[in-house]
Amino acid sequence: MAVSPQSACIRLDGKEISQQVRDELAATVAAFKKEHPAFAPRLVAIQVGTRSDSSLYVRQKAKACTEAGIEFDHIQLPEDIQQAELDARLNQINNDPAVHGIIVQLPVPEHLSTRHIVHSIRPEKDVDGFHAENIGHLSKRATEPFFYSCTPLGCVELLRRYSIPVAGRDAVVVGRSDIVGSPMAMMLSNLDATVTLCHKATSDLAAKVRQADILVVAVGSPEAIKAEWIKPGAVVIDVGMNYKADPTKKAGYRWVGDVEAAAADRASYMTPVPGGVGPMTVAMLLSNVVASAVRSFEASSRIAIVPNPLKLQDPVPSDIDIAAAQPPKPIAQLASELNLAAAEFEPYGKYAAKVTLDVTERLKGNGDGHYVVVTGISPTPLGEGKSTVSIGLAQALYAHLKRPAFACVRQPSQGPTFGIKGGAAGGGYSQVTPMTAMNLHLTGDIHAIAAANNLVAAAVDARFFHESTQTDAQLFSRLCPAKKGQRRFADVMLRRLRKLGIDKTNPDDLTPDEVSRFVRLDIDQDQIMWRRVLDTNDRFLREITIGEAATERGMSRKTGFDIAVASEIMAVLALTTSLADMRERLGRMVVALSKQGEPITCDDIGITGALTVLMKDAISPTLMQTLEGSPVFVHAGPFANIAHGNSSIVADRIALKLVGAPAGEPVTADNAGYVVTEAGFGADIGFEKFVNIKCRASGLVPSAAVIVATIRALKMHGGGPDVVPGRPLADEYTQENLELLERGFANLRRHIENVSAVGLPAIVAINAFATDTPAELELVRRLSREAGAYDAVPAHLWAKGGAGAVELAEAVVRCCSAPRADSRFRFLYDHNLPIKAKIEAIAKQFYRAGSVSFSAEAERKIEQFTRSGWDKMPVCMAKTQYSFSADPALKGAPEGFDLPIRDIRASLGAGFVYPLCGAMQTLPGLPTRPCFYDIDIDAESGDIRGLF
Ligand code: NAP
């Protein structure tokens, strides 16, 4: 239709306005991209079948998207696709965080349900605005939809751009379809027009139309609304697009609207057909996609902070009672607050989920958050509350200072949970919850590690057995059996061949000598280093004899078990950075030496693929939460005294990205959150390994270290009586004693000096007990500052949760806001130094030993490791946590002692050598009265009791 140029009617020029809108969108997208290079709006259009009109519409949308800088994917599916297949496809696209809008081109073939399809698109990607949730929110006064349907939105935009007032006017909408008429009526009503909605059953339509100040017509019936019905001066928006036969036209037809063209003689404004509403619809689709992309981009750079407030009680109830009284958020809710896409997490029950490593790829443009490591002084056997401080600090940052904050902690081992120490979910009002799930099997990672470890052990002994009883030819025909006349090497066998320098891929091409080298690992039974593991403090398995049955033909040997969390596979899990890296590391783990002294690896045994399969779920960190609703990653659990004592690199990396600064922005105090990661035991143990092993492997640089101290432990270091689990504390610990405290401060001073020596600011957290006096707390505060600590703050996290650690959290924020410590952070030693030099660097600089003595066995192995080229790795000291020395009784800050190295092991997969200092055991035992006495279940309710 052409509006008469003579009339006073102003043409609502959809073509021109839509071009303006599209130009503005293109400029917005370009500007956003310039500031945030990772910003990439994307629309996916699904077309089922090949209808030519649908193809034309899709092409128009594709062109418009490209011009606006929006990526456009056209997915054309076969006409006969079944609903289930289409659902699966839609689900995949719904879950793809790179897609911001999805449209399914309608109509779809009759065997498919339009209603089902429309509602299968997630409302936040439903850029057509058709989903019932979006329509529902539109029809409510108090809420807004994610998207408004594009055609009525285009009509409103025309009214807006022509500055046509709407509020208080009488509007009539003719037609009540779900996509045009009904939402149009609601949108006009929301703009405060008084709306009449007409349809086929409307009586005296002409009279209704005559009342309209604003008339919108969408009936799909050519010229159904007569010109003489139009109120003089009315605004007419004609949505209709109809063919009308016209022999004068080349095509034989012309486009007409639902309103007679002559209506322009009476109207003040009117849309032409074509060139009115039509072009606006496409422009609004683009506008919806850009809005969606911006929303998703902004949300992904900011996690929602939704605290779960505590109801503190005094006296403080038991850990398990506190946890039971504070229901966690459903894990899907927490995941959504973190902006995790559905494909990025997999729930394990109601309150835990595995999070995939893909998150770091999606957020790779983001800066990292502030990385804070929590360590401690040399503890008493009761522990000084490092986990409690880590968790309470995260709660304070998140729930009280409203900063994005993650805690990254280790998964508790069943050994301590049922032994002396109890669980490791924190304590009091600073806990990971549900603590029962965390302290027990959780997502089964430790079981997976034990399964993988023991599969290796079984494979090594079995291989030794088979090699001892078979010729080369027999071994070869069994390792590479002919199937249907064809022999082939398994992939892992090709790795062994490459290692042997044999580049053949066809088993039939091997010479007898090559066959012999390939099949015969020639394991020296006395040099099998691989030990079995279990996650129980079972002291009688420390040394055992295996192979006693007659079927093993006398090939018995002595070996032993370690605790699963001290295994090399646990270390690999904690230090790996990707599935491919984990496979590589598992493959190079050395299990034994051959009779010629050559190392035999898991690749040689042929087990690497199977191990990776067993570990494939374990590589994803487990998302949980604190009592106050802040996110926690629980992942990996190496002990700090006999392993490297730190949770996983992948968990820290994902958390750092999730709380990190938005892409393209430099990290500042305000735009980045905090990741609180815990390093086991005292700073001489877990923290030293955090720096020299974990940070070396991850490349991550911490901003600050929190050193946890208790008045109790400091008094013990000052010469207080023994602290023994299960026995009441001596009076020295419950009454003020400044002299003992000041003497024992030497231990904390040494740890502050050590943290400062690697270039990190140290913040002392005094984990306060009810018996600590103000003078005692003040003394530690003053001495810590004098010793060079950035600050020292008493924290009441056990009794008050995050509220008790606000001052500590503020100190952490202040410290991290100071110019970053990157330039000052340094490793303690160069990993290329000889093994002994590295051990001495740790012993003399961190422990302050006067000398290091090596047993003959340790000397022999160091020589052997050096010959094998295994001397270029960092060192993972296995040493008691109770003293800087190898003697647990040597408290305080001893100096000049001798550090005896009893033995040394090599963990090629983990990437460190592992000296054993003094009498360290790699499998703890149970005491006379272990924790398990108190652990029980209420058989009626199923509630667990006695865990702490
Ligand atoms: P629809 O789903 O067929 O709905 C038509 C509506 O009009 C129904 O509510 C129907 O009433 C009502 N109606 C039909 N004849 C009527 C009459 N004589 N008197 C009063 N009411 C009558 O149509 P639609 O999808 O909304 O599309 C309407 C028109 O707009 C079509 O020409 C279409 O091509 C066009 N359109 C254009 C765009 C664009 O981008 N420009 C976008 C969408 C649609 P009942 O409910 O009582 O049956």
Automatic annotation (TrEMBL):
<dbReference type="Pfam" id="PF00763">
    <property type="entry name" value="THF_DHG_CYH"/>
</dbReference>
<dbReference type="GO" id="GO:0035999">
    <property type="term" value="P:tetrahydrofolate interconversion"/>
</dbReference>
<comment type="pathway">
    <text>One-carbon metabolism; tetrahydrofolate interconversion.</text>
</comment>
<dbReference type="Pfam" id="PF01268">
    <property type="entry name" value="FTHFS"/>
</dbReference>
<comment type="subunit">
    <text>Homodimer.</text>
</comment>
<dbReference type="GO" id="GO:0004477">
    <property type="term" value="F:methenyltetrahydrofolate cyclohydrolase activity"/>
</dbReference>
<keyword id="KW-0560">Oxidoreductase</keyword>
<feature type="domain" description="Tetrahydrofolate dehydrogenase/cyclohydrolase catalytic">
    <location>
        <begin position="12"/>
        <end position="128"/>
    </location>
</feature>
<dbReference type="InterPro" id="IPR020630">
    <property type="entry name" value="THF_DH/CycHdrlase_cat_dom"/>
</dbReference>
<dbReference type="GO" id="GO:0004488">
    <property type="term" value="F:methylenetetrahydrofolate dehydrogenase (NADP+) activity"/>
</dbReference>
<dbReference type="InterPro" id="IPR000672">
    <property type="entry name" value="THF_DH/CycHdrlase"/>
</dbReference>
<keyword id="KW-0521">NADP</keyword>
<dbReference type="InterPro" id="IPR027417">
    <property type="entry name" value="P-loop_NTPase"/>
</dbReference>
<keyword id="KW-0554">One-carbon metabolism</keyword>
<dbReference type="InterPro" id="IPR036291">
    <property type="entry name" value="NAD(P)-bd_dom_sf"/>
</dbReference>
<protein>
    <recommendedName>
        <fullName>C-1-tetrahydrofolate synthase, cytoplasmic</fullName>
        <ecNumber>1.5.1.5</ecNumber>
        <ecNumber>3.5.4.9</ecNumber>
        <ecNumber>6.3.4.3</ecNumber>
    </recommendedName>
</protein>
<keyword id="KW-0511">Multifunctional enzyme</keyword>
<dbReference type="Pfam" id="PF02882">
    <property type="entry name" value="THF_DHG_CYH_C"/>
</dbReference>
<dbReference type="InterPro" id="IPR000559">
    <property type="entry name" value="Formate_THF_ligase"/>
</dbReference>
<keyword id="KW-0436">Ligase</keyword>
<keyword id="KW-0378">Hydrolase</keyword>
<feature type="domain" description="Tetrahydrofolate dehydrogenase/cyclohydrolase NAD(P)-binding">
    <location>
        <begin position="149"/>
        <end position="295"/>
    </location>
</feature>
<keyword id="KW-0963">Cytoplasm</keyword>
<dbReference type="InterPro" id="IPR020631">
    <property type="entry name" value="THF_DH/CycHdrlase_NAD-bd_dom"/>
</dbReference>
<keyword id="KW-0067">ATP-binding</keyword>
<dbReference type="InterPro" id="IPR020628">
    <property type="entry name" value="Formate_THF_ligase_CS"/>
</dbReference>
<dbReference type="GO" id="GO:0005829">
    <property type="term" value="C:cytosol"/>
</dbReference>
<keyword id="KW-0547">Nucleotide-binding</keyword>
<dbReference type="InterPro" id="IPR046346">
    <property type="entry name" value="Aminoacid_DH-like_N_sf"/>
</dbReference>
<comment type="similarity">
    <text>In the C-terminal section; belongs to the formate--tetrahydrofolate ligase family.</text>
</comment>
<dbReference type="GO" id="GO:0005524">
    <property type="term" value="F:ATP binding"/>
</dbReference>
<dbReference type="InterPro" id="IPR020867">
    <property type="entry name" value="THF_DH/CycHdrlase_CS"/>
</dbReference>
<comment type="similarity">
    <text>In the N-terminal section; belongs to the tetrahydrofolate dehydrogenase/cyclohydrolase family.</text>
</comment>
<dbReference type="GO" id="GO:0004329">
    <property type="term" value="F:formate-tetrahydrofolate ligase activity"/>
</dbReference>
